[in-house]
Specification:
The complex is a heterodimer of chains A (about 325) and B (about 425).
Chain A (H helix, E strand, L loop, with lengths): L7 H21 L2 H26 L7 H19 L3 H23 L4 H14 L16 E2 L15 H25 L1 H11 L1 H6 L4 H27 L1 E2 L6 H14 L7 H22 L3 H22 L4 H10 L1
Antiparallel strand pairs in A: 1-2
Helix pairs in contact in A: 1-6, 2-6, 2-9, 2-10, 2-11, 3-4, 3-5, 3-9, 4-9, 6-9, 7-9, 10-11, 11-12
Chain B lengths: L1 H22 L15 E8 L12 H14 L7 E8 L4 H14 L4 E3 L4 H10 L2 H4 L3 E4 L15 E3 L4 H15 L5 E6 L2 H12 L6 E5 L10 H11 L3 E5 L2 H13 L5 E4 L6 H6 L11 E4 L10 H13 L7 H19 L6 H11 L23 E7 L5 E3 L6 E3 L8 E2 L15
Parallel strand pairs in B: 1-2, 1-3, 3-4, 4-5, 6-7, 6-8, 8-9, 9-10
Antiparallel strand pairs in B: 10-11, 11-12, 11-13, 13-14
The chains are: A mainly alpha (about 325), B alpha/beta (about 425).
Pfam families (chain B): Peripla_BP_6 (PF13458)
Keywords (chain B): Signal
Keywords (chain A): Cell membrane, Membrane, Transmembrane, Transmembrane helix
């Protein structure tokens, strides 16, 4: 049994504490780390969206990159055409991606396993290229997504990337807090019931299909939010920013995080951002050839993925929790 | 218990946070980053792996080779040039991440040769090149926007714009294929729109136009149907104004269908090395027309090509000499000229000013005039048109370069009588 069960208040305080720590961090680390921090926050949201879908509701998506694209384009269009404030762009990104997610979820509820994986994969390949078909989506070179300079009240030395980091971190904290509450609620329990034993869940009075569609919709909304954050950090949105490799990276991040627990999400997010840099310095230290240097990040990620699946299939956080419970 | 500790931690970190906010102050502005009295650091992010990498991944090696040659001969104004290379896989998100590493971690003085319109745009915006005054030399895209000094004050183009290219093709058709039926395969996005504008200005009427959807990861369209459509319209000349994968697909299918019109290949898709990587044997190209602004890589009578070949042999061992090597070395050569012109008291600002002031007269291999000025950041302003031989090498017709030059606007296309400045002794900065 758990020895300690944190109350809702202390959990909320934990998030506040984390927020204060991040503000502190943003003032101490250099600008590259701040930029990377914003990317980590984006990955946190994106990976949590996969964890919700796969770990909790038992559905597989290899095409989350496409849902990120919907969010990214949604936010940029709102900003460019209606000069919407940032929070509204993000809200719009969530709604648009959730709408797509609901449509996709309705299809997905009829599919399972490899069929669902295949469908979502096709989406990841096809959807971003749609941008090339419509002029208002800006074609291959995409659209500008400029959230503007940080407010003057923050001071002259307050950099753009720090501003991105603050926005991304706050967004990630709020959505994680909301999500962990949701997963502890009736919906979270419903999803787990469906994932573990869908027939038993149905016998217990759960509407399985509806529960799956809801999970897909919420997951898509989160993915859309991540897409808006991604577009913010690169100040543009273009089809090339949402390649198939992004969808795979997110799935990898979810596995490394531990797909059944939200708590490990930061591990996957940090891994995705840190691996290329670790590979870079590693290659430099051992004086590897250019060819080896270029292929090292992929090798490290794949290696980590295999190790995770072999030794800690439920992810590091779940592993520690299980050990504590023994 | 834990709750209490946590509260203590919150209080402690709040104090630390407040303290560090008070302490943060603006550092004094020193010399520009990436610069010492004996060295200059430049950075490039380019697809070294992934679908867009074949061919392009030879560019950084070529640049490095030329820089090493210059360094071995004393550097530029006493400074040796180092090039830091990053792989962005042609993904804008990665391009921004890598550019940030170059700027913030490796602390490069300037960027050089970033590739792809979407990536270059994202880097420029997100990394705030203009606000920070970071020069971005010779971006590797034909999107005319980067030559616009107002929008991208620190970026310089090298390639002629797609619109220029289409106008030049139009003039060439007029001069050589007047009255013939012309077909076009183009990419259905702004790359193609730029081209269509150029063709329209040149007054080209197409018997058939086939758009294909682009996508950095998708296989280009349904090439089999292109050929049947072309066969039905039966044009005498077909222009392939697309990326390498589309060009490869069109040529491959045409061969399978035994369809052989007169091909004119756009400069983006008409690179034999890249086409070979897309499984098109060089022989498929034989007889097709192509465009270039640099001298033919096979033309050892050209003083620049000869020098580049020698440099490649010494400093880039085992790498086949082709137009990607020429492209990389041309950028590196121009960068060296610009750094030289900016003088010993080099700053980012003085580098940009030097290109604006003297860029149009820098010694360089391009056969068309360069358009740099205080109002424009366009590089080469024209093309020569030649024929591919059976090895996939583009050679000028009759052994003579006829260079057409024009602008990205409504200006006419004329045959250029531009005389390229002579190469400085041994190809070193003079």
């Amino acid at each position: 049994m758990h020895k300690f069960k944190p109350s809702n208040t202390s959990r909320f305080l934990g998030f506040v504490f984390l927020g204060i720590f991040l503000v502190y961090l943003s003032n101490t680390v250099d600008e590259l780390r701040v930029y990377q921090g914003a990317t980590v926050a984006m990955y946190v949201v994106a990976i949590s969206s996969i964890i919700l879908l796969t770990g909790y509701s038992g559905q597989v998506s290899l095409g989350h990159g496409a849902l990120l694209a919907v969010g990214g384009y949604g936010a940029a269009l709102l900003r460019n055409n209606f000069n919407a404030p940032i929070w509204l762009c993000f809200a719009g990104a969530v709604l648009m991606a959730a709408f797509w997610g609901a449509l996709l979820g309705a299809t997905a509820a009829r599919l399972s396993g490899p069929y669902l994986a295949g469908t979502t994969l096709a989406l990841a390949v096809g959807l971003p290229s749609i941008a090339n078909q419509f002029k208002f989506l800006g074609g291959e070179q995409g659209l500008i997504f400029d959230i503007g300079l940080p407010p003057a009240s923050l001071g002259e030395t307050f950099s753009q990337y720090k501003w991105f980091f603050w926005i991304a971190s706050l967004t990630a904290l709020i959505s994680m807090w909301w999500l962990q509450n949701l997963l502890r609620s009736r919906y979270g329990r419903t999803w787990r019931a469906v994932r573990t034993q869908s027939i038993a869940a149905e016998l217990a009075g759960i509407h399985v299909a509806r529960s799956k569609v809801l999970a897909f919709t919420i997951s898509a909304g989160l993915a859309g939010l991540a897409g808006a954050l991604l577009s913010m950090t690169i100040s543009t949105v273009s089809p090339g920013a949402f390649p198939l490799s992004l969808s795979f990276a997110l799935a990898t991040g979810a596995v490394i995080s531990g797909v059944t627990t939200l708590g490990g999400v930061i591990i996957g997010a940090v891994t995705l951002v840190a691996i290329p840099e670790i590979a870079d310095s590693l290659a430099r230290r051992i004086g590897a050839s250019e060819n080896a240097t270029i292929n090292l990040p992929g090798l490290l990620v794949s290696g980590l993925l295999i190790v995770t699946v072999l030794f800690i299939p439920n992810g590091p956080v779940e592993q520690i929790r299980q050990r504590k419970m023994k | 218990m834990i709750g209490k500790n946590r509260r203590k931690l919150i209080a402690a970190s709040a104090v630390i946070a407040a303290g560090s906010m008070l302490l943060s102050a603006a550092p004094a502005q020193a010399a520009d980053p990436g610069l010492t009295s004996s060295s200059i650091k430049l950075g490039i992010t380019i697809p070294m792996t992934g679908i867009a990498s074949p061919g392009y991944n030879k560019i950084p090696g070529a640049m490095k080779a030329y820089f090493e040659y210059v360094n071995a001969n004393g550097g530029v104004n006493g400074r040796k040039i180092n090039l830091v290379v990053k792989d962005d896989q042609y993904i804008p998100t990665l391009a921004v991440a890598k550019a940030n590493e170059l700027i913030l971690k490796d602390k490069v003085f300037a960027l050089i040769g970033t590739l792809g319109t979407a990536s270059t745009k994202a880097i420029s915006r997100s990394a705030q090149l203009s606000a920070r005054g970071i020069p971005s030399m010779f971006v590797n895209t034909g999107f005319s926007g980067f030559a616009d000094k107002k929008a991208y004050p620190t970026s310089f183009s090298l390639l002629p714009s797609y619109q220029m290219e289409a106008k030049v093709m139009g003039k060439y058709l007029d001069d050589n294929f007047a009255g013939k039926k012309v077909g076009l395969i183009y990419q259905d996005d702004d790359f193609g729109v730029d081209a269509l504008n150029g063709f329209k200005q040149a007054g080209v009427n197409f018997a058939i136009k086939i758009p294909y959807a682009s996508g950095s990861q998708a296989v280009a369209g349904v090439p089999g149907t292109w050929i049947t459509k072309l066969q039905a319209a039966a044009p005498d000349v077909v222009i392939l104004f697309g990326v390498s994968s589309a060009t490869a697909a069109a040529l491959g299918n045409a061969y399978a269908y035994k369809y052989a019109p007169k091909w004119i290949l756009g400069s983006v898709g008409g690179d034999a090395t890249t086409l070979a990587a897309n499984k098109v044997p060089p022989a498929f190209l034989a007889g097709a027309k192509g465009l270039s602004f640099a001298p033919a890589p096979s033309d050892a009578t050209d003083e620049y090509i000869k020098m580049f070949m020698d440099v490649n042999t010494t400093y880039n061992k085992g790498v086949a000499f082709d137009n990607n090597i020429v492209a990389g070395m041309t950028s590196a050569f121009l960068a060296v000229q610009a750094i030289k012109a900016a003088g010993p008291n080099l700053t980012r600002k003085s580098l940009i000013a030097a290109i604006e002031k003297g860029g149009a007269t820098f010694a360089n291999p391009a056969l068309s005039p360069l358009g740099y000025s205080s109002t424009s950041h366009i590089g080469a302003t024209g093309y020569w048109i030649g024929t591919y031989d059976a090895t996939g090498a583009l050679k000028p017709d009759g052994g003579k370069y006829t260079v057409y030059t024009t602008d990205s606007g409504t200006g006419p296309v004329v045959i250029s009588n531009y005389k390229r400045p002579a190469m400085p002794a041994k190809g070193l900065p003079n």
